[in-house]
Write a structure and sequence with these properties.
It is a single chain. The chain is mainly α and 531 residues long. It has one domain. It is 67% helix and 3% strand. The protein is built from 22 helices and 2 strands. A two-stranded antiparallel ribbon has the order 1-2. Strand 1 and strand 2 form a beta hairpin. Helix 5 crosses helix 7, helix 6 packs antiparallel against helix 7 and helix 9 crosses helix 20. It is globular. The N and C termini lie far apart (77 Å).
Amino acid sequence: MNRKKKLRLKKPKLHPVTLYIILTVLTVLVSGILSGIKFQTTYSTINATDLSIVQNTVRVENLLNYNGLKYIISNAATNFISFAPLSMLIITAIGMSVLMSSGFMDYLSKHIFSKINNKVITFIIIFIGIISTIINDIGYVILIPIAASIYETKGRNPLSGVIAAFCGVAFGTGTSIFVGSAEVSLIPYTTSAARLVDGAFHVSLLSNLFIMIASTIILAIVGTIIVEKIIVPKFGRVKKEDAEEEIEVIENLDEEEKEQERLNTEYKEKRGFRYALIAGIIMMILFIYSVIPNLPLSGMLLDMTEDTYLKQIFGDNSYFQDGFTYMMSLLFIVTGLAYGIGSKTFKNDRDVFEGCHDNLKNLGGILILIFFAAQFIYVFRKTNIGTILTGIVANVIDSIEFGGIALLVIAIILIAIANLFLTTPQAKWVILAPVIVPPLMQFNIAPQFLQFVLRAADSMTNGITPLSTFFVIFIAFLNIYNKDKDKPIGIFGAIRLIMPYCLIISLTWLLLLIGWYIIGLPIGPGVYPTI
């Protein structure tokens, strides 16, 4: 019996750059359509000076016309240069290239990471990813390549390391083990909204400290289980080709030569590690001294115009915030140079620059990807679509007549949805605080708890929106470590990979928030979920 074979058309695997171009074109077309049908919304904000309600009407800005196309063309370079991941990636990549080319990371992998249990490694990576969000978004550009390298040396697929690090940062962005810049930027809007009900209400910077610490530990544990039980089995293990080649070379030597070679290598590596450790400690002391106020030549990285220390270090004009990326890169450079000099992997300056060149070879492809991702994100922001959708969410919440825990759950879900289109917490809270804080205060829910609810809801979907500025970094590293170059991992492929993590962590966040509210545990010093 002859059976006709069904012809299956191969689905085209579009490169991420192509997808970003398509999304940009679609955004321009949609802006023209929505502008034509007068798509708009009106939402309320609060004047912090006199606590008056201000009505804001936002319309879609049409980019499918002469002025819109002129904006896209004339701002392409500005969009690229001002794109936050660009400078952070280049600066940290330089430091990381010195660190890796010196052999320091190989030493750590061979003598330290290899002795640590795989699950513990995953927990540490996710935990560090979560707490790294206290200082801008540097975890994306530093932790992802380090995690990939560690996983690879452990014989695991580096893609699992990329996903573990990215998910740790992205889905843990709502919390940390201490307060940071997020509290500084959100508290003014929380306070203004709360004072519509209680004119003397005060929100402390430490109001969410206890729930932040607990949620950080819980998310790290749950994240470790997800990665070990779902992500790692999906990608499996990899062959250690470099190690096999090294063994083959050593086997060609006689026993005496092998032993001498091993002893020489160990001596150089240990000396390099001592040099790196000393250099790293000195750099850390200098960094710490630079954020201590009121000592001779200290406080260089603090904004001394602010009246509290937390604002001095985490405020909008903090030199520590602005310079942290460079500080970390400088730490990597000095530590890498110290190890290279001590271990003799760097014999002269040419060795340093040649090693850096080899480790930066993938940067060109990432820069192209960042360029087109920046155009898409800035074009979308220009249309005001994200702001309008968030305004609609605010109006939906405002129209709900019931309150209490039911309204709280609905608010969490709607904020998570709004975050897909408007990813900046401050921009959302300006719109949402006036319609969430006052009504829920009437049902005895504390504004400080609601502020944390915003951050938790944000982190539920922070890792699956292409409008997140650092999502492009995730895609870039996925494709660097993707062995099948004929099948690049695009935007939607990347989302599919982390969707299990997103769903389980979102459920974890929801249960955590509801459980904490019902039990009534303190969320900070002297602060409870209820008033």
